[in-house]
């Protein structure tokens, strides 16, 4: 018996389609903010964002800032779950430096391609982008010192499975620092079963 | 859910008005949806 509120496969396809649009048309009509204006709203330092080319920022579509509760340390190994166009992976790469590693994982081909181009253009050889799902990360057990994520887990039908997978890739005592949305008012069960509400 | 899945020392930071002024603002306001930073250690 599947007790998830929505069909995980259908939701995943709708999310993938939405973020294809964000990759190809970042300034289009989305239900959320994108790009530099969003980064400023979410307290990313202007000194970091202003130094990046437009193509590295324009498809940023996070819901918060996973770095506000703690900076990463030089040399750390980081996994970015749902790395999108690579904005947070790039920020993470700046913090861990060239002795660290950042593996960005995303399921949307267009986002992965954009993230790879962005990392290469910036000379960030410590960043690697891999295709995969939050529920099945293509990362070895206990590899990561830190897992970051931004606005992704809320889009996954089985959140417990995602958190279990994140624990699998973290070393014992490793940290999860992420940003996501939460509601202060209960959402009716019928609305939670409305898959369109999840994606926009 | 973080603690149920084995994380400890869970911390939640202050909210952002993530959807303010965006097309999704009305839905976000209806359910008081905001963005938050979370920090947790794998126990």
Strand-and-helix sequence of chain B, N→C? EHE
CATH class of chain A: Alpha Beta
Output the CATH homologous superfamily of chain A. Answer: Vaccinia Virus protein VP39
**Approximate strand percentage of chain B:** 35-45%
Spans where pLDDT lies below 50 across 5 or more residues of chain A: none
**Percent of residues in helices of chain A:** 25-40%
Q: What's the total number of strands of chain A?
A: 5
Describe the main β-sheet of chain B briefly: 2 strands, antiparallel
SS-derived structural category of chain B: mainly beta
The gyration radius over C-alpha positions of chain B equals: 14 Å
- Tell me the strand order in the biggest sheet of chain B: 1-2
- Write out the strand line-up for the largest beta sheet of chain A, numbering strands in chain order: 3-2-1-4-5
Instruction: Indicate the overall shape of chain B.
Output: elongated
Percent helix range of chain B: 10-25%
Chains forming the largest contact: A-B, 43 and 31 residues
If you compute it from the alpha carbons, what radius of gyration of chain A comes out, rounded to the nearest whole angstrom? Answer: 16 Å
Measured distance between first and last alpha carbons of chain B: 14 Å
What structural class results from the helix and strand content of chain A? alpha/beta
CATH architecture of chain A: 3-Layer(aba) Sandwich
